[in-house]
Structures
1.
Amino acid sequence: MLDEALIEQLNRGYVCPPDAGPAWRAACDYGFDMSLVEDALTQTPEQRLEEHQRALDRALMLNPNINSDAAE
Amino acid sequence: MPQSDKALLTRLNEHGVEFVIIGGVCGVLHGVPLVTFDLDVCCPFSPGNLRRIEAAVKDLHPYHRLTPGKLPLEFSDNLVARLKNLYLQTDLGKLDCLSEVKGIGDYHDVFNSSELHNTSHGKFHMLSLDALIAAKEAVGRARDLTAVKLLRAIKERKEGS
């Protein structure tokens, strides 16, 4: 059943959990998509490095000049 | 120019380089979802360790990427004795080697503030979460302070779980 509450939930995106601590809430309020952090925290450091490599490759494919020293 | 942090780390390990992962990649390893375009490590700038770094990258056309003439990486005894940092471009990407980390100290201090991680491609020391926060706060650039917001959230979540 697609009631209004579910549609609202689907459209809303990440919602900071009510029991989030002050640092988590501050990061949410800053505008970070903390679902990305939640996903990362379910991974091992090695998996995070591989995910980062994929993101890096995507970024470099979209904008090869982003890796110049001037862009750092 | 590609950037393969895993391949660079594997090479450093295979050549017996002493190093600790710092900077953005260290943040990634802790769970920060921000893309970074170089690999920063802290290492002792002893002649032996510098020679091992040289051996690890020598077939990757390394050069000092921040020098105007893109000076190739060639160590003389005089240079080895005076270097404090190396900012290299290689065929596998950027590799920055620092002898000190602001907010932490020299390699000895950094090593003592690190933790060991086992991966399928070797064992690596990386700055602990607390040390990385201290380092980024000490540098204080906007992008470092942005990462600190995420690092503090991760620390809070880990301590709460």
2.
Amino acid sequence: MLAFINEPAVLSIILAVVKSIILVSVAMFHVAYATYFERKAIGHMQVRMGPMRVGPHGILQPVADMIKLFFKEDIIPEKADRTVFYFAPVISFVAAISSLSVIPFYKDWYVANINIGLLFILAMSSLGAYGIVMAGWASNSKYAFLGGLRSSAQVLSYEIAMGLSLVGVMIMAGSLNLREIVEAQNKLPYGMFAIPQILGLFVFLVAAFAETNRAPFDLPEAESELVAGYFAEYSGFRFALFYAGEYIAMIVMASLLTACYFGGWTLPPFILKALPWLGLVPGVVWFVLKVYFFIFFYYWIRATLPRYRYDQLMAIGWKVLIPLSLLNIFITGTLRILKVF
Amino acid sequence: MSNITMRELKEDIRTGLKTKELVLSMGPQHPSTHGVLRLVLELDGETVVKCTPYVGYLHRGTEKLCEHRTYLNALPLSDRLDYIVSMANNVGYVLAVERLFGIEAPPRAKYIRTIVSEMARLSGHLLWIATHALDIGAMTVFLYSFREREWLLDLFEHLCGARLTTSYPRIGGVRNDVTEEFLDSLYEFTEEFPRRIEEYETLIDQNRIWLQRTKGIGVISAEEAINWGLTGPVLRGSGVPYDVRKFAPYDAYPWVDFEVPVGKNGDVYDRYKVRMQEMRQSNRIIKQCIERMPKGPVMAPDAPKFTLPPKEKVMSEMESLIHQFVLITKGPIAAPEGEIYSAIEAPKGELGFYIVSDGTGRPYRLRLRSPSFVHASVLPRLCEGHLVADVIANIGTIDIVLGECDR
């Protein structure tokens, strides 16, 4: 009766489901502790302790937060557009978490190894903006509405810069498959695209901050201006979905940064040559450490920089980042034709 | 938005699309309107077309309440004006009453009052830089400056038992003398504080985003600033060196050295610079006061009709007990008839007390000239034509406290 399980197609589906479940649970755990770590890290930067009450050094704070968010009343404003209001956080969350499926954490550690991995992530991150715009519209609140408008404009303009900055990587690797991109980097003596693609890296880094609505580009949720921006009217679990979506998007961007510019799970060959015993450490450790570093970098920036103004943000996107990324494509393309690499 | 009715939609289609400004009510409950200020913004996209401030959400009728209290009993009401710097308000009030009665506080009391006014200025400016930076998005400055403010509030507590609503100065002096520990700790603070100011400046002073958000924002020329009746750092940011401490010196200000920092462009950045420099000057004043403070009484001795007798005497002498009783219940009977306007340089600007006396123990009318009220009126001038984010920067830069604005 269970013979159909041995069919290769069925087997691969089961495998994908199991992988997805593992990935989602690991990702959600990371989201919970990313919030804790953010509060701790920023707390210490600001001469305070951060959460200290729940468990030793507040280690159980995410659990308490989660319980609280689960049991909070799910308030829907009377004049809200109910259907859209229900779906907005789901879209935001699903778009973020499905991007995780194509990220190679280690040689064979991925849910889907598709040839257009990079394109898939870009597509998903722009889909996430729909959730924000819809939330802003459906809440029928002016603050949320302004937040949604800001977000749509921001995501639109920074997406172009981000996509263009990744073109350099695509040219160098000759592929859109994230696994092949990582492997292409390992063939270089210094083991990462961060050095030849320094311009692209800069553009990507800035655009990633804007894509994920993080400081200094956190205009859609600017607390001091728009109170909470697009999710001002959300509460309870729907709010948690937005929150989780934002953190997963952050993890996705950090992973993308690691995979496309910093050699993914590999170590630069010259380091391995100098310290061969480092080769014994499984590659996933390097991947995760790199991702943690970039997440920390996000927090670091948040504690340091003031917030940009809406028009300044647009000016940076269109007048600085897009020309820079075009220049990067030109340089990379020229070098490629001249067979420098 | 989504609640446009079908009929309206049809009307729009028939007559052609028309655009309308989005009316956004910002406040009275809003994280960065600094209390309960309400701004009604008419927005064209993100641009503010019209900005109307509404005040009065914190109105407690302070002026009217003063009419029913003796001069002495009205003192605690001044705490609640600008509750961040209550010490400065107290000093302003007692000075006005002293001028009405023609009493002179002894030199030591004058020095102490100067010290506490400057401490109040520091704590007010520290709160200002904390919230102003937080509004613009630089959240780290907030707790750094609160660390120093805490130090000052602890010193206030040491001095008079209260951190916020101090009511420490008295008509004719101050309530009690300062202790040696207080002066030592304060001196230590003045030694340390310039370094701390540098610390805040490292965080934002040269930050490109900070410069972009503050330079050329909320510009007001010197002439306009005078016409709007602006005072304090907001006026000095436009380059007018007007400071009550220099123009009509009171307490110990004529005996200490300090400069009045002025800006040039009259924008948010210059006002920020002026306040940062003012903190350094305040620090200098406090230091000089501690060094030069003479010994002596802290209450005017020759005016038992106006000032409360010392507590020990109340406990031991019949005369003093009677004085205390009469002063508290009836107030000073022999208040001269007349009118007086007396102003001090409060951290926010010129804080004026206009007292009309009809010869009884209570003021016939007490009018407050509060800088926050005047400054709130200039908001439309600063905001219109700019973006929503600039509204926040402008509220921060005029540094208003609604307790004082609504009174």
